[in-house]
Design brief:
The protein is an all-alpha fold. Helices cover 73% and strands 3% of the residues. It has one domain (3-134): Orthogonal Bundle (Peroxidase, domain 1). α1 runs antiparallel to α4, α1 (3-22) packs across α6 and α3 runs antiparallel to α5 (92-104).
C-alpha cells in the first residue's frame, strides 16, 4: 500500500470510529446504507452533485440527519484538509457554508476531476471499514435515508 493510500485508509478508519463513538445504531445503519452507495454515486453523478444531494438531505423535519452531516464532514475534511478545519464540529449550516464557499466556488475542471478521484478512493475505504465493522447493508445502499 502506497503512502497516500495508507494515509487515506487510516483517515477512513478514524471516520468510521467517529461514527461508532458518536451515533446510535440507527444512525450507523443509515450511514452504512449511505456510504455503501457512495462510490457508485460519485462515479455516476459526480462529486458536486453527490455533495449537493447530501447537503440537501442534512436537515429533516425532525432536525439534523446525522448520517448525512457526518458523511459530508468526512468527505469535505479529506478534500479540503486544513482549509476546512473550522467546520468540523458537525453543524449542518457550517458544513453547507463550507461546501458552497470552498468546494463549489474554488474548483476548476482539473481540480474537480482530481478531487472526484480522491473522493471515490476515500469512499471505497469508508465502505470497506463500515461493512467490516457493522456488516453489509442488506439493501445494497439503495436507501436515501
Amino acid at each position: 500500500m502506497g503512502n497516500q493510500e495508507h494515509i487515506r485508509a487510516s483517515y477512513a478508519y478514524r471516520c468510521i470510529e467517529d461514527i461508532t463513538d458518536l451515533t446510535s445504531g440507527d444512525d450507523r445503519k443509515n450511514y452504512l446504507s449511505l456510504v455503501s452507495s457512495l462510490p457508485t454515486r460519485l462515479q455516476t453523478i459526480g462529486l458536486m452533485q453527490t455533495l449537493t444531494f447530501n447537503c440537501s438531505k442534512m436537515m429533516g423535519s425532525s432536525g439534523e440527519k446525522i448520517h448525512f452531516v457526518k458523511l459530508n464532514l468526512h468527505l469535505m475534511k479529506w478534500l479540503l484538509g486544513e482549509t476546512g478545519a473550522t467546520v468540523w464540529n458537525g453543524n449542518a449550516s457550517q458544513v453547507y457554508h463550507t461546501f458552497t464557499t470552498k468546494i463549489l466556488n474554488d474548483l476548476g475542471t482539473e481540480k474537480l476531476m482530481f478531487h472526484t478521484r480522491q473522493a471515490i478512493d476515500l469512499a471505497i475505504w469508508l465502505k470497506r471499514f463500515a461493512e467490516g465493522k457493522w456488516g453489509k447493508d442488506e439493501d445494497g445502499g439503495k436507501n436515501d435515508h
